Amino acid sequence: MCGIFGWISFGEDLRAGQRASARVALRSLEHRGPDAEGTAELPGLFVGHRRLSIIDLSDAANQPFRSPESSALLTYNGEVYNYIELRPELEKLGVQFRTHSDTEVVYWALRHWGAGALARFDGMFAGAWHDPAADEHLIFRDAMGQKPLYYYLYDGGLIYASELRALLALEGFNWKIDRDNFRQFLSHAYYPWDTTPIQGIRKLLPGSLLRISRGKTEEHRWWQSTPGQDVFDITPDEAVDECVALLTDSCRKTLRSDVPVGVFLSGGIDSTLVYKLCAAEGRDPSAFTVTMSEPDYDEGAKAREVVSVTGSQGHHREFDFNPVLLRQAMTDVFAKMDEPHGDPGYINAFAISKAARPDVTVAIAGDGADELFCGYLPFKAAQFAGFAEAFPDIFARGARKFAHMLPGSDGYVGLQFKLLSFLNGLGKPPLERFNLWLSTLDQSEFAALTGLNDGAEVFSFPPSLEAALADMNPLDQMSYCYQQIFLPEFVCHHTDRAAMLNGLEVRAPFLSTSLIRFANRLPSSIRMRDGVLKWPLRSALAKLGFSKSLVRQKKQGFTLPLARWQRRELAAGTRALCRMAESGEGLLDRVTLNRIVDSHLSGRRNLYRVIHCLEVFQAWRQRYPHLPVTQ
Q: 590-601 and 608-623 are packed helices; what angle lies between their axes, rounded to 10 degrees?
């Protein structure tokens, strides 16, 4: 896990001032790589790297990495877990390794196999390959977007970095806050697809690469796995056994490390499986659990049961979260957050990463299981949407009126929240319906808040995504949306950023490429069987000897009782949000904002998500007050 920065100039060389600015940008990534800094400066090229040492701790594995006999160099962030398996293949091609690192394996794989090497890697990574002799550069990102990569393409060159902050640290660029992208953020609670807060700066899409050759830039997808294609002929029991075998192999590989490793254990289905299988490898990893002062959000008892049943000798540490600690964690996160991100789980992830870092340098988590094995409530909604749409509109209007009569529960996904979210998406195309089901507000409320006519454009995505959904069943459509949109920039984003702010690497065994392919080839009737979310994983838990209560537990997101605390201990800060509308930039309608805040604080509606998004954006905006907003 590291931080990377690079600047490629087309034609003329980089000026001295640009190189000095590049070094400042690289230093802004120190938190991602506290162990070493390296740079390489060639004509028309600056490459920088901040290292967090995980495998082969020697200086010989530092980056940018190159071999003595070539000018080609590599800089990358992440880990390729199957480097041990790839090494003998390269040795047969004549490679004589000087280190025991995965970095050198990645370097020689790209030397021998070119961009085709990416499909051989099983891991999480984002990086760049520079070959000045061939005047070719490859910028790449892993299959599911676990590692971030931002880039800015302009007439004179291309700049890339692990985090947005590095690009914003550069002198001489006219950065502006993108108004349309802000609306995307406010609707989704994150910047989806390739969008960012800044006009012109983009994220490289997961499973994609940029090829820069002789001043021309092309983007390609090097990875694609689509739910429902080439479906297995497999029985449910065979599916469960193969799932356990693949996850076991993935856990074995993700445990590879020359530094201490632990597991983030919530007691939920995903982290329980990961913890059990990691412990079975004989490593007895430490377990780290967040507990809550609010009983209905506390998962401590489940985590303790998992540790007891597993019988691991590893240390189990619990960290209690309460409003006082939340306020401190929010202050820390808001002061350092690289890109606005409205998931309260970001704060949880930051707190547990900070607490675990003195004991471990690597943590293993259950990210990805919900997206691969149908773990979210909208998967059930997708099955019933067609049935509900058969009823006349009068039934939907009546259901909406009934929902508004219900109290705005501050529990995890209350009835009013579920009902209104479901109704928001009825009658819409699959991708738009997905966005509306997960939106912070319904379409009319969002339009009123942001000054749009109807808000429809915010809930659509590129035609290529719509086309891919055309022939899928509802469950596969939902899986594809979650994997392509939600997983990279919501789940993986907050995990990476929260951990890296504390110099911690977090790995996700469920996101092994072999397990992704397997899950996407399973019949949808097995991924969610008889209406049971994550049926293969629940069945795996049962086979491994866990109690019925753990196997049958409901989804409890990695979140906190933020709605409740906003109405109590954090109410003053919630009220202060209305100041945002006074900035004169016209991002929000003040009357609508006041109505939203009042409705939430009074308990009529649970609107904590849009309120938290505004708090996050306001804090981020205060760090860049000089940036204008596009018209």
A: 130
Token pair recorded at residue 621: 């905006």
Please give the order of strands across the beta sheet that includes 36-42.
Answer: 36-42, 45-51, 2-9, 157-161, 150-154, 201-203
In 3-state terms the chain splits into helix, strand, coil percentages (rounded to 5) of 50, 15, 35
Query: Does residue 234 carry a pLDDT above 60?
Result: yes
Distance CA 333, CA 393 (A): 44
CA distance 43 to 267: 53
Kindly report, residue by residue over 393-428, the tens digit of the pLDDT. 666 676 666 666 666 566 656 666 666 677 677 777
| Ramachandran assignment for 284, one of left (phi > 0), alpha (psi -120 to 50 degrees), beta (any other) | left
Q: State phi, psi for 271 to the nearest 5 degrees.
A: -70, -30
Contact predicate 596/589, CB 8 Å: no
Domain boundaries, the chain: 2-221, 236-374+494-551
pLDDT for residue 413 = 63
Measured between its terminal Cα atoms, the distance across the chain in Å is 38
Pick the CATH number of 236-374+494-551 from 3.40.50.150, 3.40.50.300, 3.40.50.620, 3.40.50.2300: 3.40.50.620
Most trustworthy range by pLDDT among 47-51, 299-303, 420-424:
47-51
Distance CA 415, CA 407 (A): 9
pLDDT at position 465, please? 81
> CA torsion sign, 25 to 27 to 32 to 33?
positive
Q: State the Cα–Cα distance between residues 250 and 252, nearest whole angstrom.
A: 5
pTM over 0.90: yes
What would the two tokens of residue 72 be? 């080609």
What's the rounded Cα separation, in Å, for the pair 390 and 368? 33
**Which helix H or strand E contains 65, and what residues bound it?**
strand 65-66
